[in-house]
Amino acid sequence: MTPQDLLIAYALFGIPLGIGMGLLLGLVARHEGGWGGYASFRRRAARLGHISQVMLPLIGGFYALLLNGTQLDSTWAWIGSGLWVMGGLLLGVSLFLAAWQPRLKLVMPVPATAVFAGAFCFALARFAG
Ligand code: HEM
Predict the structure, then answer these.
(1) Which residue in 12, 50, 103, 119 has its CB near the most CB atoms, within 10 A?
(2) Which atom of ligand 1 is nearest to the CA of 54?
(3) 125 C-alpha vs ligand 1 centroid, how far in Å?
(4) What percent of the chain has pLDDT over 90?
(5) pLDDT digits (tens, 9 = 90+) for 14-24
(6) How far apart are CA 93 and CA 19, in angstroms?
(7) Is the CB of 109 under 6 A from ligand 1?
(8) Could you give the count of Cα atoms lying within 13 Å of 118 in the half-sphere of its Cβ?
(9) Cα 88 from Cα 91, distance rounded (Å)
(10) What distance in Å separates the CA atoms of residue 111 and residue 94, rounded to the nearest whole number?
(11) 69 falls in which pLDDT band (50, 70, 90)?
């Protein structure tokens, strides 16, 4: 498995998973006051969980197309795709945990930082090789 395979698999399986979360969220959002209402922290965390689980796989697939073969075989690409995929999945988990128990929001910065670092590694893969 190459970093490109990993990113493409994340895109192909992650996007339907994110959309599925939107369908489940719809069961809550159909009630105006669901999980404390549209502006509540719980509802916002769940919404961001849904959005992140659609967009991070989508962007991951885009990175797989942005970086060519040589760049994608570099150490930075390996580190970047690992951080992006693991960070992305754990960010979704941490956001839905925060929607369930708001005090668990303290977990979110860890996967969010992993995703940030992953994006930075992709830039290094492209230019530092
Ligand atoms: C079958 C497909 C989808 C379903 C069933 C779905 C479901 C939902 C639901 C129920 C909400 C409202 C949550 C709330 O009121 O708290 C929502 C919000 C949102 N969804 Fe989706 N979604 C789908 C696809 C997508 C896709 C492909 C994207 C692209 C990134 C997306 C981005 C968003 C955004 C940005 C919001 C927030 C909108 C706002 O704040 O008003 N959704 N979605």
Answers:
(1) 50
(2) 30
(3) 32
(4) 81
(5) 999 999 999 99
(6) 15
(7) no
(8) 25
(9) 5
(10) 8
(11) low
